[in-house]
TrEMBL record:
Topology with respect to the bilayer: Multi-pass membrane protein
Name of the protein described by the UniProt record: MFS transporter
Localization per record: Cell membrane
The species this protein was found in: Fusibacter ferrireducens
Keyword Nuclease annotated: no
InterPro entries in the cross-refs: MFS (IPR011701), MFS_DHA3_Transporter (IPR053160), MFS_dom (IPR020846), MFS_trans_sf (IPR036259)
UniProt keyword annotations, A-Z: Membrane, Transmembrane, Transmembrane helix, Transport
Superkingdom as given in the UniProt entry: Bacteria
SUPFAM superfamilies: MFS general substrate transporter (SSF103473)
Pfam families: MFS_1
Major facilitator superfamily (MFS) profile domain segment(s): 1-408
Residues spanning the membrane: 29-49, 78-106, 142-160, 166-185, 259-277, 297-326, 383-406
Primary localisation category: membrane
Length: 412
């Protein structure tokens, strides 16, 4: 594994994740949107709009990556991100924010699945494919270190500028670095199969890839298992911001500066601990199968959300913050396991497409869950939100259990 760690391209994969997660505004997004007068329902609707755009472009983006080149697609995605951050910085008008969400979603759609497919391709080229959990866990840990550092640096940027909007402008620079970094990737990772664009060929390939996917029950169940949990978490992960705001108001002098400092510190802690979890999760594979580990993390997330509902009711906000931190660790540790097990069942030419399908399913669930969660939060409070989500996850796990699927197939 020393050779893997020292490999120059593996280092580039790590740096990519590091710069990608330097989104200095991220710990304060809901606080910022609330400060410009948006309700939780409106914020949920914005999140749903973002995911709807991702949903529409996910599968086409995966096929574009597989057919016309992954490097080009990733470089394009960072252009979309930079446009988004610029719009957030220019105006706080609802319609401009919606447009910013549109470009952010296009960046997400063009990025998701593509870089993972490039990692897979490189590991195959180097005959390191069996170490994919280790490699992906390591690259993801750099992403989480980026998140942690981003949270701390954002405090300094805010204290210097005196407003949250400036954080969107500062977020552009790391994405310029990532654009240049992707351009330096070897052409062997581009995997461009066609030079000219044909709409009929595009739709024919789209249909072929979907047909292959739908014929595999394992792929369907694995993607539904991962997408459902990630989407539910994604719908409410930023709710830690208003909850922490209430904690600060109850404990300290309620100023925006105090809130920014404490949110930055909490997100920094989340990033550091999650990075450690992601980097070391491969060690659990010595004790658990990949399928058992995926379902175990799902069950633990149900317990955590149930705990958040309980302690929100009793207003024990410090415990809620700790549970939010734990939920982030579980999600970030679970992802390398999913990428590993899905990689075991994918053909080389369908990796970006299937990972994009998984992301599309996630987007569809967020479209349904985020506005509903926002409406529940507006009318009934956070306790009701997490009771609803705990019950929903419990039901979904009965249908999407990977362990049960593998046991059934093994018995036949």
């Amino acid at each position: 594994m020393k050779a893997i760690i020292k490999d120059p391209q593996i280092k580039k994969f790590c740096y990519y994740g590091f710069f990608k997660n330097l989104k200095f505004f991220e710990p304060y997004l809901i606080i910022y949107l609330s400060s410009v007068g948006l309700s939780y329902l409106q914020i949920g609707a914005l999140y749903a709009f973002r995911e709807a755009v991702v949903y529409i472009f996910e599968i086409p983006s995966g096929i574009i990556a597989d057919t016309y080149g992954k490097k080009f697609e990733l470089m394009t995605c960072f252009i979309f991100y930079m446009i988004s951050f610029s719009l957030f910085f220019i105006s706080s008008h609802f319609y401009v924010i919606t447009l910013a969400m549109l470009f952010f979603a296009l960046g997400e759609a063009f990025r998701s699945g593509t870089h993972k497919a490039m990692i897979f391709a490189y590991l195959e080229q180097k005959n390191w494919f069996e170490y994919k959990t280790f490699v992906y866990g390591r690259t993801r840990s750099f992403s989480l270190i980026g998140s942690a550092l981003s949270s701390i640096i954002s405090i300094a940027f805010y204290l210097y500028a005196g407003n949250l909007k400036i954080l969107f402008a500062f977020s552009i620079l790391p994405y310029v670095f990532d654009f240049i970094l992707i351009a330096s990737y070897p052409e062997s990772l581009n995997e461009r199969h066609k030079v000219t664009f044909s709409l009929s060929d595009f739709f024919r390939e789209n249909k072929r890839q979907l047909t292959r996917f739908l014929k595999s029950k394992k792929l369907i169940m694995l993607t539904l298992n991962a997408a459902s949990l990630d989407a539910i978490f994604k719908s409410v992960e930023d709710y830690i911001q208003p909850i922490l705001q209430l904690l600060i108001i109850a404990t300290f002098e309620a100023t925006e500066s105090t809130l920014v400092v404490y949110l930055g510190v909490v997100y920094g802690i989340i990033g550091v601990i999650s990075a450690a979890g992601s980097r070391n999760v491969y060690k659990l594979l010595n004790r658990y199968s990949k399928a058992n580990l995926l379902d175990l993390f799902y069950k633990l997330m149900i317990l955590i959300f149930s705990g958040i509902a309980l302690f929100t009711y009793f207003e024990l906000r410090m415990i809620i913050v700790l549970l939010f931190i734990l939920s982030n660790i579980l999600i970030d540790s679970r992802r390398p396991v999913f990428v590993d097990i899905i990689g075991d069942h994918l053909e080389k030419d369908q990796r970006a497409t299937v990972l994009s399908i998984e992301s599309q399913l996630k987007s569809f669930i967020v479209i349904c869950v985020a506005p509903l969660s926002g409406a529940i939060a507006d009318h009934f409070g956070f306790t009701a939100v997490f009771i609803f989500l705990s019950v929903l996850m419990l039901i979904l796990l009965q249908f999407f259990s990977v362990t049960k699927l593998f046991q059934k197939q093994a018995s036949h």
